[in-house]
Amino acid sequence: MLNVSDLGLQFGKRVLFDEVNLKFTIGNCYGVIGANGAGKSTFLKILSGELDATRGHVHIEPGKRMAVLKQNHFEFDEEQVLNTVIMGHKEMYEIMVEKNAIYENPDATEAEGLRAADLENEFGEMGGWMAEVDAAELLSNMGIKEDLHHKLMKELSGPEKVKVLLAQALFGDPDILLLDEPTNDLDAITASWLSDFLADFKNTVIVVSHDRYFLDMVCTHIVDVDFNQINISTGNYTFWYETSQMMSRQMANKNKKTAQKREEMMAFIARFSANASKSRQATSRKKALEKLNIEEIRPSSRKYPFIHFKVEREVGDQLLNVENLSKSDENGKLLFGDINFRMNKGDKIALICQEANTMTAFFRVLAGELEPDTGSMEWGQTITTEYLPNDNEEYFTGSQDLDLMDWLRQYSEDKDEQFIRGFLGRMLFSGEEVHKQSSVLSGGEKVRCMLAKIMLQHPNFLLLDEPTNHLDLESITVLNKGLDEFKGSLIFTSHDHQLMQTAANRIIEITPNGTIDQLMTFDEFIRSEKVKKQREELYSWVAV
Does pTM surpass 0.90? Predict the structure, then answer.
């Protein structure tokens, strides 16, 4: 359906990839992974025709339609929401506009009338008669209520626009679907719905994502951008990760015989195939794995940072008691209210909320950076907290003259150069990189620095507002492991489903009218009918 032949991309002397030959077939979902800067999003732009490759070409089977998730959230500001979704099927929308213009023209000629009749036939064959109904259903499934369907896009909030643009890409059952970070800014319920939708999607999907759970649930294949090459391997992200790690270990173990290594790999593949039932794509993936040629598996060149939070002082019996907290924004809009909960020893709480600014305000109140309008917080005497904010810019903008060594030294009791250099090395800053100015770091590098700062403080209580933002899959994987093994207490939020599922044993949803507080896993929470009823009741109290 979609073939890539002898593809190469080069910027000056830098080669992103070269001699790429790939075939994407119907019924499969391909997850594109690679280190930051490897060229994942660039590769999608080449497939969509937005960017020209240096050499080679992309061939789409004639008659097949490609849809792409738009990244410009302001492109359709003057369009009606429902029409924006229908625009996802460009040909259908153009026919709809043309025929409607003829009908609305009182001076239309007989020839134009005949043209309108022909357009009606084409429109009907494309499923146009159900276009508005289908678009409305997509929007409703994503949590965009009917009263918003006929508003202009510019009247919607940022997260609502993201959902509309996603509905636009999905509309009309495209033959090839290109999605770049589709779960960004989606709430957990919508992200779960999207996972189910794509797992049942019958055509071809190519997706870039840093969400491991999402990649595991929807992908039948992984497209790995590495070694200046792009290669396709069978299986989801976890299968790719574990097999590449196993291959690396086997290459390091020179004493093992080839036959023994092959037997070990085949045994692992058999176990993974048997456990594939937890995925919606289980049947197709299991069949694919049974046909897998292990020679296609390669070790990865990825490097993983060191993330481990050591607790110096164990928490006591009293951790945190929150009573009647509320906060409004500068315009007087209530962000959250009537927030009450008590943390128990052993709690690791994941917070969810429908509005990102509400979540950040709540974390800033907990961290003592904002005063609540009402209520109080009482911390236990044994508690030592460290806070990772969603926006960490203030930690770096005042440090323009500090290189990484001096920046991290501020937060370390041990000021020795070798210690600081070694710690930075474990966070993947090696060689001359340790003298890079802290003010020019990338988003992911800044988060790694903030995590290093936290580790040096040895807190027993972590407040983490979207800690996976800007991180690559490798850093997210080890952060997840670090939080799983953390012996202290934790309140965090993240768009990474797997982190929420594995690192938390209690879920609290923050609303303008109180909390939904359940001692259960994240998956149980988002699928709970009890929680759904509580949510509808709490949000129905919000004043219009």
Answer: no
